[in-house]
């Protein structure tokens, strides 16, 4: 939540300017105090009154607006803001800020501010592809300015391509994360496996488990918010795709193993949150098994590879984190897995407990590190648990 956070919303001259009103409402609903600065061209698309009404502050639409509870000068606004969000951000505003131009209230405020600045660009696809724009983004990114990538789809100019303003929920999430998390995973690549695997029996049937992928996705989302580069290797799931995260979709344990080892060398940290099937049908039928063919069906199963065990053998200086799904002797079994798979940390789940584990939004876990320190956590949302796991990983020497 954003209670007590002060956000300066910069709105620039794009047709997507009307969407800024909805962004503003969502930020307000989350408890943020939001003040809007519009560029002159933005006022051609939406009336400042819209934003004044929603924000409960006078909208600033020129360098000399002075009528608000907050004393408005470029310096006072620059100091007031915890974060500056420019949404939609045109190629023009990005170019100006990249060059240090300060010729209106928004550019002047950004230049004078030490707050985090997040751009949500919206423009024509050829403008996005233009190397001049790309250079500006590169320059600003290197200086610590953040970007929420625009989306592919129909554009206001009638063309289809990259350039639509990102989904407003993603923009609000990004702001929330930016104000909540420290960037303590910068320059780290985290490889995460998630969800279940499916082991085929014939063309229509498979063996699998109840894992939804929620834990792995929560880890991926929060690691990204904390500055990590994330590679997510996931089995089938019904979750929304994660923006800006390299996501590889797999089905079987063997496919997961292949992809994990493909990206292994790039990772500093590997978190194996997937519930990988331990067994697969020995024979995969080429068509569909027909019921007329037999009164009963006996399926012979064989072991799949233990991916995490194989990773433990090759880990060297990489940090390896596993999960343990247990129905009894939680700590004892988890410790055994920690040792056998040469892990630095294991997250043990009692999957027989109500309201936790597979498919649930919450989880109750016990963390055990390689020194044998056991930390029993309370029931909490998977996103909070993801935070705790990521905190613990940073303590591993
Ligand atoms: N794991 C894996 N490959 C497998 C099975 C499990 O990489 N074929 C990983 C899981 O991602 C998890 C850890 O190993 O991080 C432990 O998984 P779990 O299912 O709890 O234990 P198993 O090792 O499969 O042993 P068992 O099912 O007998 O408890």
UniProtKB/TrEMBL annotation:
Keywords: Decarboxylase, Flavoprotein, FMN, Ligase, Lyase, Magnesium, Metal-binding, Multifunctional enzyme. It catalyses: (R)-4'-phosphopantothenate + L-cysteine + CTP = N-[(R)-4-phosphopantothenoyl]-L-cysteine + CMP + diphosphate + H(+); N-[(R)-4-phosphopantothenoyl]-L-cysteine + H(+) = (R)-4'-phosphopantetheine + CO2. GO terms for cellular component: phosphopantothenoylcysteine decarboxylase complex. It holds the Pfam family DFP. GO terms for biological process: coenzyme A biosynthetic process; pantothenate catabolic process. The keyword Lyase applies. Its EC number is 4.1.1.36, 6.3.2.5. Residues 1-189 are annotated as: Phosphopantothenoylcysteine decarboxylase. The active site is at residue 157. Pathway: Cofactor biosynthesis; coenzyme A biosynthesis; CoA from (R)-pantothenate: step 2/5; Cofactor biosynthesis; coenzyme A biosynthesis; CoA from (R)-pantothenate: step 3/5. Its cofactor is FMN; Mg(2+). Residues 187-395 form the DNA/pantothenate metabolism flavoprotein C-terminal domain. Residues 5-176 form the Flavoprotein domain. GO terms for molecular function: FMN binding; metal ion binding; phosphopantothenate--cysteine ligase activity; phosphopantothenoylcysteine decarboxylase activity. Binds 1 FMN per subunit. Residues 190-397 are annotated as: Phosphopantothenate--cysteine ligase. CTP binds at residues 278, 288, 323, 337, 341. In the N-terminal section; belongs to the HFCD (homo-oligomeric flavin containing Cys decarboxylase) superfamily. In the C-terminal section; belongs to the PPC synthetase family. PANTHER family: HOMO-OLIGOMERIC FLAVIN CONTAINING CYS DECARBOXYLASE FAMILY, PHOSPHOPANTOTHENOYLCYSTEINE DECARBOXYLASE. Catalyzes two steps in the biosynthesis of coenzyme A. In the first step cysteine is conjugated to 4'-phosphopantothenate to form 4-phosphopantothenoylcysteine, in the latter compound is decarboxylated to form 4'-phosphopantotheine. This is Coenzyme A biosynthesis bifunctional protein CoaBC. The gene is coaBC.
């Amino acid at each position: 939540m954003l209670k007590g956070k002060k956000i300066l919303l910069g709105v620039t001259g794009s047709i997507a300017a009307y969407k800024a009103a909805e962004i503003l409402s969502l930020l307000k609903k989350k408890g943020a105090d939001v003040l809007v600065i519009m560029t002159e061209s933005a006022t051609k698309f939406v009336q400042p009154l819209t934003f004044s009404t929603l924000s409960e502050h006078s909208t600033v639409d020129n360098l000399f607006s002075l009528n608000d509870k907050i004393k408005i000068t470029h310096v006072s606004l620059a100091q007031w803001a915890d974060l500056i969000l420019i949404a939609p951000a045109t190629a023009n505003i990005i170019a100006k800020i990249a060059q240090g131009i300060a010729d209106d209230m928004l550019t002047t405020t950004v230049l004078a501010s030490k707050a985090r600045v997040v751009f949500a660009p919206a423009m024509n696809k050829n403008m996005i592809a233009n190397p001049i724009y790309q250079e500006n983004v590169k320059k600003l990114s290197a200086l610590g300015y953040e970007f929420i990538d625009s989306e592919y789809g129909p554009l206001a100019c009638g063309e289809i391509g990259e350039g639509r303003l990102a989904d407003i929920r993603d923009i609000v999430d990004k702001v929330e994360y930016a104000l909540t998390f420290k960037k303590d995973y910068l320059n780290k690549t985290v490889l995460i496996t998630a969800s279940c695997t499916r082991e085929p029996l014939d063309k229509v049937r498979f063996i699998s488990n109840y894992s939804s992928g929620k834990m792995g996705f929560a880890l991926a989302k929060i690691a990204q918010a904390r500055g990590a580069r994330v590679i997510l290797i996931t089995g089938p799931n019904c979750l929304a795709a994660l923006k800006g995260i390299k996501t590889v979709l797999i089905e079987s344990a063997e496919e997961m193993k292949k992809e994990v080892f493909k990206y292994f060398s790039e990772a500093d940290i590997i978190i194996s949150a997937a519930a990988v099937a331990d067994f697969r049908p020995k024979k995969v039928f080429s068509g569909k098994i027909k019921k007329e063919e037999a009164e009963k069906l006996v399926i012979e199963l064989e072991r799949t590879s233990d991916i995490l065990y194989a990773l433990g053998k090759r880990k060297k200086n990489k940090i390896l984190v596993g999960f343990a799904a247990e129905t009894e002797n939680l700590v004892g079994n988890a410790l055994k897995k920690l040792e056998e798979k040469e892990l630095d940390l294991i997250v043990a789940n009692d999957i027989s407990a109500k309201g936790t584990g597979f498919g649930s939004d919450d989880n109750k876990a016990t963390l055990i590190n390689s020194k044998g320190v056991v930390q029993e956590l309370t029931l909490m949302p998977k996103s909070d648990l993801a935070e705790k796991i990521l905190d613990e990983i940073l303590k591993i020497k």
